[in-house]
Amino acid sequence: MAADASGIADSRPPLVFLHGVPFDRTMWRPALRELELLDPGRRAVAFDLPGHGQSPDLPSYSLPKIVARVHSAIEEAELARPILVGHAASAVTATLYACVHPTSGVVNVGQSMYVTPFASFVKTHAAEIQGAGFEDVWRRLWTSMHTDLLPPDACRLLADTCRPRQEVMVGYWRDVLDRSLVDISVWAATRLAALRATRVPLQLVVGDAPKYGPWLRAQVPGTAITVLPRSGHFPHLAHPLGFARSIHQFAVSTSS
Questions:
Q1: What's residue 74's pLDDT?
Q2: Measured distance CA(167)–CA(146) in Å, rounded
Q3: Residues in the chain with pLDDT < 70?
Q4: What local confidence, expressed as pLDDT, does residue 9 receive?
């Protein structure tokens, strides 16, 4: 997997950044510049997911295969017990990773772990997503992300990196497309229970106070919630300094 890397290996947990679908690793660069000033020299690696940016395609993008590929990339980079920072769908990847591999923390950026609403949307529009209506569905999703709240340079960055290829996005959504809503809900609850059992710290960074916050804290007690107001789906781009501060504070807390 292609990557941007900075810092050196030391006693601090390294940071691994996983972008959301269908963007690439460059979405983290504004926040990473701020983080380098706050936490000089901490090892940080931002990967391109398979099928994105400069990483090659895969025959399958099922969640277990993506987790396995991320683990291989982390091992190749010699990153021990990283803190995983996942945006959108990659927050689910980061959560599942922490359930099965040594991890110092998980940061969920803009992704509800109460998955039923999104899964219901995908299943309702399954025929369009897999057929000629894909671009219309993507436009609806794009509008819901509220990029109008972002500064102009962040909008340009997203426009330059957003590549919604139908075959790739359908691949990443395959688990949702093929499972029933009941199965998806049970699967999500089981994974959160597994994360709770690991005692791996969890932080949620969002643009608005989530209505599901109490539910998430009931699933994973001690979850830290950081709200960066009026930032839509991209709090790390709307407030790169505030986001970097939240990551730095979380990383320090995992080491104390």
A1: 97
A2: 25
A3: 256
A4: 86
Phi (first) and psi of residue 16, to 5 degrees = -120, 125
By 3-state DSSP, what share of the chain in percent is helix, strand and coil, each rounded to 5? 50, 15, 35
Taking a C-beta distance cutoff of 8 angstroms, is the pair 81, 102 a contact?
Answer: yes
Residue located via tokens 């504004």: 30
Cα 22 to Cα 60, 100, 163, 191, distances in angstroms: 16, 25, 6, 24
In the three-class reduction of DSSP (H, G, I as helix; E, B as strand; rest coil), residue 156 is classed as helix
Q: Can you read off the two tokens belonging to residue 203? A: 């932080």
pTM assigned to the model: 0.94
47 vs 18: CA distance, rounded Å: 6
Is the CA virtual torsion 193, 195, 197, 199 positive or negative? negative
How far apart, in whole angstroms, are the C-alpha atoms of residue 210 and residue 112? 8
Distance in Å from the first CA to the final CA of the chain: 31
What span, in angstroms and rounded, lies between the C-alpha atoms of 42 and 10? 8
Q: Which domains does the chain have, with CATH numbers?
A: 3-255 (3.40.50.1820)
Contacts of 171 (CB under 8 A, 6+ apart): 51, 58, 60, 61, 62
- Tell me the DSSP string of 103-123: -SEEEEES--S--HHHHHHHH
The pLDDT, as a whole number, for residue 256 is: 65
Torsion angles phi and psi, residue 177, rounded to 5: -60, -35
User: Which secondary structure element, helix H or strand E, spans residue 205, and what is its range?
Assistant: strand 202-206
Q: What's CA 53's distance to the chain center, in Å?
A: 16
Return the ∠ at Cα 100 (arms to 94 and 102), rounded to 5°.
80
- Token pair in block for residue 125: 């529009």
Q: Cβ atoms within 10 A of the Cβ of 54, count?
A: 10
